[in-house]
Amino acid sequence: MTAIDTRAFLADLYELREIGRFRTGVHRPTFSAADMESRRWLMARLEACGLDASIDGIGNVLGRHRGPGPHLLVGSHIETQNEAGWLDGALGVVAGVALARAGLPVDVVAFADEEGHFSGGFLGSRSAIGDLTEAEMDEARNRTDGTPLRAALAGAGLAGLPRMRLDPARYRGFLEMHIEQGTQLESAGLHLGVVSGIVAIWQFRIDFAGNQDHAGGTTMAERRDAGLSAVRLLAAIDREFPKVCGPRSTWTTGRITLDPGGFSIIPGRAEVYFQFRDVAMPVLERMEACLEALVRESNRRERCPATLTALAKAVPAPCDPALMRALSEAAESVCPGSWQVMPSGAGHDAQNVARILPAAMLFVPSIGGISHHWAEDTADADLALGVRALGDAAVRVLAG
């Protein structure tokens, strides 16, 4: 087993945590001053490990191993959600630094904007596989304040830089270490999770057309309340989806907007953003068919017609069997009997890289299942176990 310097690994994690620190977490949105400081910090770390470090025109940082192959690609992302956790993404990148420091022939990558601060989503990893067009970049806007992506890149000093493309011929595969962002490992008393596949997220907008009117002068019999129609449909979804979903399916109403939104005005329009997730296409298709049937039933019963629009329908990304086997053998080596195979309920850069390379992921527990919040945390012992297992797996893959 390759000796991983876990003390240096943890020190790097804690040092990176101080860039953009917010309470016990981090506020490092994409292309912010803190985000760019963290990318410069990372490039210095990569150079210190003997890698050639560069940053490209979308903000991806790559540390390239100078020696002969075979090579592995290891990494994740280092920007965060707003006022969020210190490990989501950063863990996978700093783990790559630890493997490079140990002398393994790895390239280390920090993809830009995995957290989706800009419209389009996964800008960095999509760009790296050739799936981000210049036209999409022209149209992309910051989801919080509307800043155009081009303006943000210029402000970060990245405008005009070329965008890197990953070369599949260079790599045996891609490994990403990540916190679980759930409670499955902690609840089972386990220390590692070998990811079997990454969910696809299917996103929809549901628009309800009612009639705006006075909240006091309009009788209940006369009303066409778009808000009530929306609520009743969402209740029906929550009642019917358990009949068609898989064991780890999830569904979420992320936003409900009522127009005009006044206290004393019956809403004439309602807009709902809704998504569901699963790792199996047949399950996703059943859930979509159920959603469509419920919208049809709503339109039969309700006085406010609903229109369903599909916004995004990704494809699940199963992890590579050979890489999973290496991770499983490594997990058994470092913590016998204290690991499991499990799906990822969240999206990750690995699902994009998996389109051109074998890819797999390793999870460590999240305390209380908390993530996307400044209280996100993982025990140092589990972090150290994870990077040791990742190093062991990398050796197995490279030797194969």
TrEMBL record:
One of its GO terms (molecular function) is hydrolase activity, acting on carbon-nitrogen (but not peptide) bonds, in linear amidines. The keyword Nucleus does not apply. Its EC number is 3.5.1.87. Zn(2+) 1 binds at H77, D88, H178. Binds 2 Zn(2+) ions per subunit. Homodimer. This is Amidase, hydantoinase/carbamoylase family. It comes from Methylobacterium radiotolerans (strain ATCC 27329 / DSM 1819 / JCM 2831 / NBRC 15690 / NCIMB 10815 / 0-1). The lineage of its organism: Bacteria, Pseudomonadati, Pseudomonadota, Alphaproteobacteria, Hyphomicrobiales.
